[in-house]
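Predict both folds.
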Amino acid sequence: MELGNNERRMLRAMLPEPSRAWSLDELLEATGWSDQVHVAGAGAGLAEAGLVEVAEERGRIVSLGDEGAKAVADGLLEARLWDWMSEQKPTDRTMAGLSAAFERHEAGPGVGLLKALGIKVEAGALATADEGAVVAGIEQRTSFIQSLADGPLDAASLDAEMVSHFSGRKGLIAIEEHVSRSWSLTEAGSSEDESGLEEVELVGDVTPEMLQGDSWRDAKFKPFDVNAPAPVPLGGRPHPMQALIERIRSVFLEMGFSEIEGPYVQSAGWNMDALFIPQSHPARTMQDTFYLSEPEKVEVEDEYLDLWASVHEHGHDTGSRGWGGTFDRDEAQKALLRTHTTVNTIRHIADNPHEPCRVFGIGRVFRQESIDRTHLPEFHQIEGIIHEPDANLPMLISTLKTFYAKMGYPDVRVRPAYFPYTEPSVEVEVLWRGEWMELGGSGIFRPEVTEPLGTEWPVCAWGMGLERLAMLILELDDIRELYQPDLERLRRMPML
């Protein structure tokens, strides 16, 4: 193989130190190039000729996100909540007091963070048996965040547990993959004669002017290797996400379920109030939900507004005390982009309160999420219900275990959870790479949900994120890889 000028220059720069491994910056300085593309291209040519070996090292760089920068300045949310608790008498450490001291979008998630540190909520009060453990946990997290204040760090130098923890929290840290390369001479490359590596003027294209004269006779042309590898043209295939949707659809249909669909635009009433989600819930704020200006309002039948008002204010006749306060009918008719596909199953029950059914749906949902490796503002959700007189929790668990087994994950477990609209509630986990991974929530709809819809039958319900399941099956570490226009990468993903 005849070498081009860039290959000659790079080889000539490396020959004085034949045993050295050269970094990108070192080669740029030695060759006088300013563009790393020249190094990459010349290195590839030399590697193909067997004169150079290329080594790659992959790693991850961790930096502060926007919320992480705020946490450095103001303190982590759990640290501020703990400071508030420390200033209160034990009798004053109540949920009501916490809700009054913090914004709604902080209070809810903050309690979850405190629970993970060992703080319990008992009879509306916050308490812990081991304050030292809470303080130690907060200090560890604070120290981690502050360590990034001076700039990005290699993930390998950081506490892996902390990296994992903060990668699951929106906006606190950002993780970028990076690749470093080095080039070193092979034995053949080291034996090259430097005198034969002088750069010459190479002609890439024969012009009409050259052919009209004799200049082409003495010209030195760029080498053209007719045996060089070329990309193999590949036929089309379904996008991995669409293929996965079709696979999931076929599994549920095989299990005897029917598919339902619904519109993206919904009222807050059907999306939230019908599920007994209080109108003061943090998820209903503009920071979490996409409300619309056109249409601004979706009309809801008075019959349902009356029922929801009764349930939310005093529990109606369900045996519940409701949430108290005054139900806002205008709030219930605000137009929004649905935040889950559960709204489809709720509407289905309302339209068919006395007809047994087993239905599922797969559709897009929308939430105000910051884009990172595990979150997107638009994603898919898998939803399903069993609505019949004898529906029960063992039936629900058995159904989900069967579904995941058909998807290739026979090891499934459930653990107790809390959701505003189901009781009992469970989270579903599958065993993946030796660890249990949570994939979705499920449970039995509360009477506050079902009775206003006109049914007295139990309803087994579940919901799971499709993208999270896709990351599991396709072995992806970044959810954004599913939607990048990299056809070659998409082709390399497994067939589903």
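Second protein follows, with its predicted structure tokens after the sequence.
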Amino acid sequence: MRAVALALAAGLLVAGAARAQDTSFSIRAPGPSDAERIVEKTLAHRYIVRHEEFNTRFFRDSVYDTTVVVLGSDASVASTVHGDVVVINGDLFLQPGAKIDGDAVAIGGGVYDSQQAHVGGQQLSIRDVHFDTVRTARGLELVYRPPAPPEDTIHVISLPGLFGLRLPQYDRVDGLSVPYGPRITLGQSRVEIDPELTYRSNLGAFDVSANVEATLGHGWTAAAVGGKGTFTNDRWIQTDLANSISTIGVGSDYRNWFRAARYEARVAHHWEWSEGDLQISGGGRTEDDWSVRGGGPWSLFNRNDTLHMQRPNPPVERGRLSSALAGVRGGWQHSKVDIAGGADVEVVLDAPSDERFTQTTFYARVAFPTFVSKLGTQSFVFHTHMVLTAGDTAPPQRFAYLGGSGTLPTFPILSRGGDQLVFLEGLYNFPIETLHVPFLGTPIVTVREMLAGTGVGSLGRFDSNIGVRLTLGIFSGEMFVNPDNGDHVFSLGLSIIR
């Protein structure tokens, strides 16, 4: 198990690395007008091309002084790009820290935004236009691929990820989770089916699940997901990757877990315009929940610590919980002001102890520049996450938790919880652009203040933490203090939280 965990840690840190090559390209058959306009605009200016077999990654604190073109693969961008980013025949994933002065465009794929990324121009997804990439003696040529005949019997089976192996995760309940499955596309890409078989090493279990997404046209989509798995309400605190690395390294799992057989279906409508987007959805969910014990997998440090790897997992109420669902989410960007957020509403119709309650989860992020000094452009970021419950007290599988890195660092990990939660965070960033460290980039000083409270039935007292963080490349150091009692904590790590 130790060897498996170490291999996972190494894989997580280097996942997506690929051979890169700088080259040029031309267009032989331009295709529809929108795609032709974008390609011709790109060719008319200075650019670089990345042509890789799988995912193309642009790492944080890398700077590109021209337009970047990615051919034939997905792209994950966390860099600064003084131009456009154009992905042809792939998806564009904007990562936290990405700064793109121009447009973010995906032809033959979609643009997937991040709340911590900035795009100066527009975000444009042209999903139904595809090109073939042909290598000639003069370089790479793009040839427009006309749509296939309108037949409903088109079946395409692909293997996403690494030959069908999806990105693994690691936590104190499941241990190593390894999902595998093909992707089935039906009827001109209007229906996608993702079946998965997930092995969970610490439980010794194989979980079967499936996700189905259908494009209905005119902005409407439908999705259904179902199967057995391990679930949490704390994914908002930090990313899957950050939590996996934290669990392997220091035994700190910033999530509480329960097991369930869950089935959910939603219908959504999506609007997009040059400066933002909006999505509304509605549906239903039913699940059968049961408790799961925490602790057991290997970790490099704190493997026997009851506050870390051996931290008890809160029990939940055994039984069925059925709900009606509604949601809204969206974002708006204008002149370096970035606003994103949403709300999910769950109206419970059936619960293990016959509870009747409505739970609303609200989240938002606002970022904008403040002052420009000799050191650099300063900025302010506000982030909030709220869970508010009306009616009966919710069962523990609907509790949310605070404590530890990402919420209140001076408190033990997820030591406070309930069906009511309010978390407010403000960050003031001071980049020291006059100082550049080779291979690491520009240091950033961040002043952080967090105010939060939780409770069962009603909110209890609010606590605060005040601190400062120094970020240099992927490395960061933080110092926090609780002004009420003087408790303080210092930490060093990787800047990949949330």
